[in-house]
Amino acid sequence: MKRFLALLFCNLFFTLGCAQENTPAIEIPTSVNYSYETIVGDIDIPWGMAFIDNNELLVTESSGILYHVLNGKKTSIEGLPEIYVRGQGGLLDVALHPDFTNNKIIYLTLAATLGGEQGGNTSLYKAKLVDQHLEEVALLYKATPNTKKGQHFGSRIAFDDQGHVYFSVGDRGNRDENPQDITRDGGKIYRLNLDGSIPDDNPFVSNPEAKHAVFSYGHRNPQGMTVHPKTGAIWVNEHGPQGGDEINEIRKGKNFGWPVITYGINYSGTPITDKTSDPTMEQPFYYWVPSIAPSGMAFSTSGIYKDWQDNLFVGSLKFQYLERLVIQEDKVVKREKVLDKIGRVRNVKEGPDGFLYVAVEGKGILKIIPQG
Amino acid sequence: MKILSLSYFILLGALSFYLFQEKTKAQSIKAGAEIYQDFCVQCHLANGEGVSGVFPPLRASDYLLNNIDLSIAGIKFGLKGKIVVNDEEYDGVMINQGLDEEEIADVMNYILNHWDNSSEAFITKERVEQIQKSILQ
User: Fold this and answer.
1) From CA A219, how far away is CA B132, in angstroms rounded?
2) In principle, which of A1, A13, A86, B16 could form an S-S bond with B98, CB 3.0–4.6 Å?
3) Cα nearest neighbour of A343 on chain B
4) B46, B54, B99: residue with CB nearest A267
5) In degrees, to the nearest 5, what angle opens at C-alpha A62 toward C-alphas A120 and B112?
6) Residue range A98-120: mean pLDDT, rounded
């Protein structure tokens, strides 16, 4: 009996510890028809990037530097707000206003302290880029409360074509209180007008207790965000716990389930919940088991790369490659490693020239070049 | 009078001991466990084994156990470039996590004395304060 029980427990732990790998399995191509070149080097954690032109871009380094890169030469931009550097927090994403060409406005997400309480939380700023410094720096949103926790600041920035800016804030290491509560910050995707005001048709504006900037909730730590080139929908990827990283198509007012439903388990191997679905909550578009630690997200639209058109690309911090996902009829049908063992991939973008640019920790920004 | 002044000094001594007492090693390890869960576990994992070739192990790590000051410096200032841990080469980036000196001492005591690791050393915040960035070069 004792032996039977021991066996049963072993079995249980094994099952919990090694959740079933989700399909399709990742493929490693036997031959590759691309190479890469380094556009700008020597950046420890190239967190965000935004292209001004083919040879000109902005890159954030999480320790608190905003680089202006022109033809591979980088210079630091002055005039940044004060940044709280702790754990996963620091200077995070950068994005250009949809009308940047005329107004020179950029958006930044960063961890900030602001105010008396110790610790920090994610904030969204807007500023005007004038030569090599920022002017008219304005705080548009600051998540509260501050906490000294090191985890889950988010954060990515994206725009729709109707005058909105979206950004993410992770659960800040407080999954029991933040993600499911729309009166609290954290574990949310937010939507603001480009000037920082709250859109009249945001989903929770009629609830006086709610955070009115919230657009969707029940997220853990979203660090990839892009706009679907055909539908215009906001696509997000987020870090799950061990197993259970997700891709979600964000919809207004919806609950994406964390931590009530998840395909993942605690880092210690213990379960978080026995539920992977709930009728009131959204299922992910795709989930990764095992976790790849996704960061950054971009569709390839240009047709520059043979067979890659309309594929989705996601960085893997954990396994150190760029993942190519082929989507057919709203399903991921193929996954493949690109730039295998390149280093921790923090971000991926399609440049204005249609090439894919990949940000790799300890390296910098790489450009993928098709061959043959 | 003699008794009064004696008891005064005893009281003063007890009070200052109470107010300025340092953490015991056990208390530091306990505080370090929390820091570890918050800042380290994502990469070095709950079992301290890391990911071969990507995130170096802390459990039974020759680098950690034989280079305590270098390990403190790595946490304090961040670490990048090639290191060899248990005969395997690692070439990644660990960013400065923004921990204060006491937190670094606590997490060092934890990783030096958790899993199967054990160390005679008791890392204090004073020792962390003294570590200079230059030892990493």
Assistant:
1) 40
2) A86
3) B92
4) B46
5) 75
6) 95
